[in-house]
Specification:
The complex is a heterodimer of chains A (about 475) and B (about 375).
Chain A lengths: L5 H16 L3 H17 L3 H23 L3 H38 L17 H17 L8 H9 L12 H4 L11 H35 L6 H32 L17 H5 L4 H12 L9 H19 L3 H24 L8 H23 L3 H11 L12 H21 L4 H7 L2 H18 L12
Helix pairs in contact in A: 1-2, 2-3, 2-6, 3-4, 3-5, 3-6, 4-5, 8-9, 8-16, 8-18, 9-14, 9-15, 9-16, 11-12, 12-13, 13-14, 14-15
Chain B lengths: L1 H11 L11 H6 L15 H25 L10 H8 L7 E4 L2 H5 L3 H8 L4 E2 L8 H9 L6 E5 L2 H4 L6 H15 L2 H14 L12 H6 L20 E3 L5 E3 L1 H4 L4 H14 L10 H28 L3 E6 L4 H10 L6 H8 L3 E3 L19 H18 L3
Parallel strand pairs in B: 1-2, 1-3, 3-6, 6-7
Antiparallel strand pairs in B: 4-5
Helix pairs in contact in B: 4-9, 6-17, 7-9, 7-14, 13-15
The chains are: A mainly alpha (about 475), B alpha/beta (about 375).
Chain lengths: ~475, ~375
Amino acid sequence: MLFNSLTFVVFYVVVVALYWSLRGWELRKNLLVVASYIFYGAWNPPFAALLFSTTAMDFWLGRQIGKAQEGRARKRWLVASVCMNLSMLGFFKYGNFLLQNFQWLVARIGIIYQPPHLDILLPVGISFYTFHSLSYTLDIYRGVLKPTRSLRDFILAVSFFPQLVAGPIVRAGDFLPQLEHPPRLKSNQFLWGLALMTLGLFEKIVLADTLLSGSADRVFGYAGPLVALDSWAGVIAFAGQIFFDFAGYSITAIGAALTLGFHLKDNFRFPYAAIGFSDFWRRWHISLSTFLRDYLYIPLGGSQVAPFRMALNLVLVMFLGGLWHGAAWTFVVWGLLHGSYLVIERVFRIFFEEKQWAATLPVRLIAGFATYAAVCIAWVFFRASDFTIASRMLSGMFGGHPNGDMILTTRELLQIAIVTAGLISIHWAMRADAFETTVMRLPRWAVTAIWSFMACAIILTQGSSNAFIYFQF
Amino acid sequence: MHSFISNFKQRLRLPRMFFRKPSREEQIHGGPPLEFERPIPPLQWRGITATTVIVTFVATVAWELYARALGYAPTLNDNDDLWAITRRKVQPESIVIIGDSRGWFDVDLDEFEKGLGKRPIQLAAPGSTTFPVLDDLAKDENFHGTIVCSVVPQLFFAPPGSPPMERAEKNVKRFHNQTPAQRVSEYLGMWLEDHVAYLKPDDLSLQGLLNELPIPNRPGAQVPPTFPPYFQTEDRERRARMWEKCAEPGSELAKRIQQIWIPLFSLPPPPSYIPQDVFMAKMKEGIEKRFADTVAAVEKIRARGGKIVFVRFPHSGGLKEIEDKITPREQTWEPLLQMTHVPGIYYSDFSELSGFNCPEWSHLSAGDSVEFSKRLVPHLRDALKM
């Protein structure tokens, strides 16, 4: 079920009304479990069984890790959990990709192997819920979480419908404690949640789908060479689209959770105002970057190892981060590019971190602009479906096709320019603050006007229920 | 109050991110402590919400009244979900109408039911290629019914990857992959569209309004052709009827649509990035493949006892001139009938089917579509040996 669909509107109203009208906390939790499975099963009912089996296995494995006294036994159970989760992910998400690469590899040594094409349907959001579930056993192993005794609570932690299919990646350790005591219905929290949902849907339906996606799709779908302006416009449009699409989903999820009394952490903090790539990853898809940092980068030694090893760790983590997004080498290159950016930034830091001029506003603005440009270049690999398209786009962006085609209308160029200018200005204006702080500073009439404007724009747009980009991951 | 806000700001203010090491706590939990609570801006949310609801409601009602004042009325919008729901109604022996917008506008289901003895299912879709639907029916082992297929050569032979092909493929794909949630959304959407006039994505959506902005394009820009505005109603059986405003004699809307058809149906310039001879060879190869694929699909349907008839529906004016020039009958229609051995009805071959006026050159008005369907039925019965 998509947030931007009429089915969700009806589903949400019914669930929220029932939830707050039920007296017992256990009953409410049962309702949320049923609602979450309906939400998920509305895509493809059999996949709800897969979700349940992953959850139940991790619940059992978590208990085994918790019960085991000996370090080696704990490790064995953890390895079992990691293998179970990753093999599930591997089969559904990477099955055909692995076979194709195996075919290519054996062909290099002269063996002709024709693998069968596995007709595998990718369960929606498998990358997200696998990480929700995996965080539970990992945290029990690390000693920062005790196994829950309630299977129902764990099922709810993994499948809680606002964050189930496209994040934020909510760790069991952050969610399970919220299930201990029933939340009270607080009108301000509830209404603020509704305002956040409106903002999220506005970002998705109006900004991403209506104002940007068409141009990005046409540029990346064009089979010929494009002039620099159109190439850059397409990439910048995609940079905006993916932000509004994914941040829109996250904000809607956070808002929906708030209306039910749950608190989810931020997933984005004005990423296009980042100065440097570490800063970018502290602002973009925070739940994934912190997941990779805590469960991969730090266990590999983090920043406490020799510089070369640290660089290798960074590249490895970003390589896996890229692969997490999709079973294609273009995603791997995207991840490796970000890994390289992080390494280069570390080198820069060694030379310039202490310089006074490095902290001046013009230098910070230039660094911010360079960060945005480099992030956009990486987006080319993320969006392009193959390397032919990616290289053609990059060539166009850097003046390789001065006589290339111009395919965007002036209106589309203006739309991209206005939306991107607004996006970047807002990110820079709010980069040091929480979103809530900015809202608090606004006069009441301005909050009302902005909220009304967003609601009217959503109604005017008559959205066509386009899927969120991150669903495919 | 001042100190409260200051504390609040302090609490919300994010730590400086640049060149900052994460705290020990963050390293363990990946963020704020476990008892994290989202801050709620301390504003008068009840008043703000009430005002927002009133403003939004008033603006929506005003927009609805404005839409009705412009002559718009509630009607369904055609989309892949409605198509999928209709496709699901196809039974093994159904009569199915497939093809382009002429088969969609010009067929009256009541007249077909009276004349053919069975209510047909409308699967023709505007601006779409026939082949993906024909192929889907051919692959449906249960189907051995009757197909009435509208042919507009430029759409029928549209190459893979072209918008007409993609539209048809999108419909077929949605039929096979439609989720329960999508189906429910479509039923809810139909209910809304039955009651709300402003739900007209072509004209009254944000995208439709933006498309209307008179902004000139760069010289040399290869911008996509404009598509026609809203000019038809549709019911739950996907029966399309031309909007009266378009069917009126001398209608401005009809004249506007006529001028839209000209670039849409004119041969586009070959792409700049492929040598012209290579492009032409590819096009020829594509057309030959479409002939061959159509023959294969038709044979499959016939082998199961199914029947098919091709129909060329009326078109007129400048559009007819363009079609006759770019896709002459002897190079498209005739070879199609010869290769497939399928009976065909070309409207201009029969006096009773000729002489209909297409207000915007491509489709019949709602009234004429009924009369045309009535006159077409005997020809269909002959062709299908019914």
